[in-house]
């Protein structure tokens, strides 16, 4: 009994010692935080646990307005749950949405005036037919554009995002100008409706692609929902400004065009800054071309930030030497002899050839993502050689002296074998994503009979 009592007393003493140590540490027994927004600590006072806001948090305890604003309009876990470029992009996106809302008000007023609102001679039937024709042509344009360009929107999201906003401004200008050309009013508003339908497809699809980039915790739905809340708030602010604006521009075409020009300039500038602020770590053809060119020129590996700053954001009308990836076998070889030439020095799961001044890549069914990156790199090298680029790196200068297309392809296989795996390793070290790409591959996959060595 004495022994048991002594053990019990020892445990009590140990507990008092532990509690004394806790009290020596200002009574803090645990800390917790809510992302980067709040920090709390648990104190032990009079043998009871008390929760208290951390004084080192740097935030005022009564500053609840900003906390509510963040929880309503920003994704949960911000800023850790989104990409680093999220805030800058959203700020510019807010500016462009506000200016676009005001321009849309001017365009809507002009359209209503054009269909006869305020004109006693206009009929409801004529206005309804005009509206239906505009909506109908817009629906057809939406289907046609999604069919022709839907697969391009992921790989060139920045370009199509900016293109959509430029086209939206063109459509609104046409709607504002349409009432001044009564004989062509229906034709003009129908064309504007087609343009706006294209804007809807391109803008929505590219916004989804950017949301995938911004989501760092698989929280795409949350980011999309909060983006909708931000846009609704901006449109509400635009609505309030429009209520004061409409009486000023009614029956004043000159002021209407002047304000539209001002809002359009602001809208386009904000959109340009928005897409420029996006830093995507996934490789598309443009970013891969920029990174590979610099690497072959002087061995420097550009970071995602540096490459994105150099990436063009306007759609180009055409390239001197286009690249087609994922083509049919018949687009590269027309017989067994050319197949043997395509396989010369080639142990890779893809075939590459030059046909009609176009670099074509035929992908094997067992090709991995790294094989796709390698094929795209080789195609880009061939394009630079065929384009007679004056700033070719040392590895490409040796290829420039080769005139026969199949011999050029054969030598390019040797060159890419020497540089690619080091290049791929440095891509990973520079924080580029190499487990997936945004390269514009078509769906053809081929299995050729000759066994690759």
What does this structure look like?
- The chain is mainly α and 453 residues long.
- The protein has 14 helices and six strands.
- It has helices spanning 2-24, 64-73, 86-114, 124-149, 157-177, 185-214, 220-249, 253-277, 285-298, 304-310, 336-342, 369-386, 394-400, 405-429, and strands spanning 28-34, 38-45, 48-53, 323-325, 350-355, 358-363.
- A hairpin with a 3-residue loop joins strand 1 (28-34) and strand 2 (38-45).
- It is flat and about 75 Å long.
Describe the protein's topology.
Layout: H1 2-24, E1 28-34, E2 38-45, E3 48-53, H2 64-73, H3 86-114, H4 124-149, H5 157-177, H6 185-214, H7 220-249, H8 253-277, H9 285-298, H10 304-310, E4 323-325, H11 336-342, E5 350-355, E6 358-363, H12 369-386, H13 394-400, H14 405-429
Helix pairs in contact: 3-5, 3-7, 3-8, 4-6, 5-6, 5-8, 9-12, 12-13, 12-14, 13-14
């Amino acid at each position: 009994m004495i022994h048991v009592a002594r053990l019990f007393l020892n445990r009590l003493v140990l507990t008092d010692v532990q509690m004394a140590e806790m009290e020596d540490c200002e009574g803090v027994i645990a800390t917790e935080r809510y992302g980067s927004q709040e920090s709390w600590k648990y104190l032990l006072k009079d043998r009871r646990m008390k929760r208290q806001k951390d004084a080192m948090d740097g935030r005022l305890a009564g500053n609840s307005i900003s906390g509510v604003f963040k929880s309503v309009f920003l994704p949960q876990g911000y800023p850790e749950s989104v990409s680093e470029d999220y805030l800058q992009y959203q700020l510019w996106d807010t500016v462009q949405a506000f200016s676009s809302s005001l321009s849309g008000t001017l365009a809507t007023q002009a359209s209503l005036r054009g269909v006869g609102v305020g004109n006693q001679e206009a009929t409801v039937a004529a206005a309804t037919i005009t509206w239906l024709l505009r909506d109908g042509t817009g629906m057809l344009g939406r289907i046609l554009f999604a069919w022709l360009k839907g697969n391009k929107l992921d790989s060139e999201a920045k370009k199509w995002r900016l293109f959509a906003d430029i086209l939206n401004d063109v459509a609104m200008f046409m709607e504002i100008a349409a009432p001044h050309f009564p004989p062509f009013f229906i034709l003009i508003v129908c064309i504007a409706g087609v343009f706006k339908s294209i804007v809807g497809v391109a803008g929505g699809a590219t916004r989804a692609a950017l949301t995938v980039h911004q989501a760092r915790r698989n929280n795409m739905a949350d980011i999309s929902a909060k983006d909708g809340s931000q846009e609704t708030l901006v449109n509400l602010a635009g609505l309030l400004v429009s209520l004061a604006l409409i009486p000023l521009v009614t029956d004043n075409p000159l002021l209407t065009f002047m304000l539209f020009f001002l809002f359009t300039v602001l809208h386009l500038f904000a959109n340009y800054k928005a897409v420029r602020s996006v830093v995507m770590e996934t490789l598309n053809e443009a970013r891969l071309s920029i990174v590979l060119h610099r690497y072959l020129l002087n061995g420097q590996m550009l970071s995602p930030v540096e490459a994105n700053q150099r990436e063009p954001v306007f759609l180009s009308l055409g390239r001197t030497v286009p690249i087609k990836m994922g083509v049919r076998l018949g687009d590269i070889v027309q017989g067994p002899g050319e197949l043997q030439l395509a396989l010369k020095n080639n142990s890779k799961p893809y075939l590459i050839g030059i046909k009609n001044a176009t670099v074509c890549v035929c992908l094997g069914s067992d090709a991995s993502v790294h094989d796709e990156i390698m094929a795209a790199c080789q195609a880009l090298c061939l394009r630079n050689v065929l384009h007679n680029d004056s700033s070719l790196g040392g590895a490409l200068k040796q290829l420039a002296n080769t005139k026969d297309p199949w011999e050029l392809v054969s030598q390019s296989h040797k060159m890419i074998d020497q540089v690619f795996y080091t290049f791929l390793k440095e891509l990973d070290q520079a924080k580029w994503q190499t487990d997936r790409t945004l390269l514009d591959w078509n769906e053809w996959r081929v299995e050729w009979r000759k066994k690759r060595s």
